[in-house]
């Protein structure tokens, strides 16, 4: 194949340079130039940028939205309920889904298991760039998957993958992983930003043109982003992250971006000797099994995605020997913890400036919503005073800077989940509490100020 024309773009400011240089002449940033392929001019500009909107350049026309024919996306259930939930109700035809996560978390296992059931309905191909065909086959066998519907290809060159795909015409294509894929058009090494970007752009175009659903597996960098900056995340329709603590067998699949469903939707799995098993009722696993109430532990009802979850948050507050005491938050935002401690001091009258404060969400899940504020504060307070919170108590609510407890969305649904799991008391924002003060067996205490919340824990 003829060598395509390439150029270098700055990944910071987007300036284009004909030759590589150490620093960008536009913005002065160092080491940000990355090689890209320049498509021949006959191709539309949209295609050259990896988009697909400009595909039918000649036919585009302004029209009122009322004249647009609405077609429901064709969806197929993958056979793995938790995955379907995170995808927003099944796999959409022609969609591109990026599955990211740390090495060894179970990305390959999940996708292979998915093809084991999905492959029966839709012809599928699993492209492996990391493992040999023999390794894939023996893994499939160990997982107890039917081997007949599984087709695999060991290849890393995008041109050859697309050639094979044009012959086999799969409806689902899994690329494991995008970091191993390279194009002949670029001289950069596989895994470099330009290779990953160009390969992903080609696969995205393929998906949109043929209606094939494409899954891209991506490794996560130390900073937590998917390697190959954020460019990949912009190109695809959905980004799912696989999370979990290395010591724990539970894995959480989270929709980080989804053009076809709710973001932050969670799917929960347990890794066993037969691969990943779904956990359809996950509340119970995020509560640690204490014999009785323990200081420093609070249970919150979080609502990530569309489902309420009971999650335990633990705090350890201990005399610090450092001039600058430690504030460590795992599963919650670090800055939020510092803010909560300031509010606790100012509006709760409890000082923790000479204490190390550690806070952790059980089960390795990450809670991003502000409803975790109140339970996190109560856990800190409980540890500081070495006094457990009352038994069978849950809490949720946002804490404001002036010590007010602010309502959070879907209060009723959260309370129902707590009642369903046998909790007896809930400390929640006043606006989230029902007038009757009860939900089933659950007594609901509505609070407006931090002081009231602290009093309610006595
Ligand atoms: P894998 O899917 O290869 O991870 P990734 O593709 O994200 O790098 O998962 C490998 C891990 O899962 C490995 O540590 C072993 C474990 N595992 C099980 O515990 N049980 C199983 O049945 C399988 C297939 C893997
Ligand atoms: Mg893998």
Automatic annotation (TrEMBL):
<dbReference type="InterPro" id="IPR014774">
    <property type="entry name" value="KaiC-like_dom"/>
</dbReference>
<keyword id="KW-0862">Zinc</keyword>
<keyword id="KW-0378">Hydrolase</keyword>
<feature type="domain" description="RecA family profile 1">
    <location>
        <begin position="72"/>
        <end position="220"/>
    </location>
</feature>
<protein>
    <recommendedName>
        <fullName>DNA repair protein RadA</fullName>
    </recommendedName>
</protein>
<dbReference type="Pfam" id="PF13541">
    <property type="entry name" value="ChlI"/>
</dbReference>
<dbReference type="InterPro" id="IPR014721">
    <property type="entry name" value="Ribsml_uS5_D2-typ_fold_subgr"/>
</dbReference>
<feature type="binding site">
    <location>
        <begin position="101"/>
        <end position="108"/>
    </location>
    <ligand>
        <name>ATP</name>
    </ligand>
</feature>
<keyword id="KW-0238">DNA-binding</keyword>
<keyword id="KW-0547">Nucleotide-binding</keyword>
<feature type="region of interest" description="Lon-protease-like">
    <location>
        <begin position="356"/>
        <end position="458"/>
    </location>
</feature>
<keyword id="KW-0234">DNA repair</keyword>
<keyword id="KW-0346">Stress response</keyword>
<dbReference type="InterPro" id="IPR041166">
    <property type="entry name" value="Rubredoxin_2"/>
</dbReference>
<feature type="short sequence motif" description="RadA KNRFG motif">
    <location>
        <begin position="257"/>
        <end position="261"/>
    </location>
</feature>
<dbReference type="Pfam" id="PF18073">
    <property type="entry name" value="Zn_ribbon_LapB"/>
</dbReference>
<dbReference type="InterPro" id="IPR003593">
    <property type="entry name" value="AAA+_ATPase"/>
</dbReference>
<dbReference type="InterPro" id="IPR004504">
    <property type="entry name" value="DNA_repair_RadA"/>
</dbReference>
<dbReference type="InterPro" id="IPR020568">
    <property type="entry name" value="Ribosomal_Su5_D2-typ_SF"/>
</dbReference>
<dbReference type="InterPro" id="IPR027417">
    <property type="entry name" value="P-loop_NTPase"/>
</dbReference>
<comment type="similarity">
    <text>Belongs to the RecA family. RadA subfamily.</text>
</comment>
<dbReference type="InterPro" id="IPR020588">
    <property type="entry name" value="RecA_ATP-bd"/>
</dbReference>
<comment type="function">
    <text>DNA-dependent ATPase involved in processing of recombination intermediates, plays a role in repairing DNA breaks. Stimulates the branch migration of RecA-mediated strand transfer reactions, allowing the 3' invading strand to extend heteroduplex DNA faster. Binds ssDNA in the presence of ADP but not other nucleotides, has ATPase activity that is stimulated by ssDNA and various branched DNA structures, but inhibited by SSB. Does not have RecA's homology-searching function.</text>
</comment>
<keyword id="KW-0227">DNA damage</keyword>
<keyword id="KW-0863">Zinc-finger</keyword>
<keyword id="KW-0479">Metal-binding</keyword>
<dbReference type="Pfam" id="PF06745">
    <property type="entry name" value="ATPase"/>
</dbReference>
<keyword id="KW-0067">ATP-binding</keyword>
<comment type="function">
    <text>Plays a role in repairing double-strand DNA breaks, probably involving stabilizing or processing branched DNA or blocked replication forks.</text>
</comment>
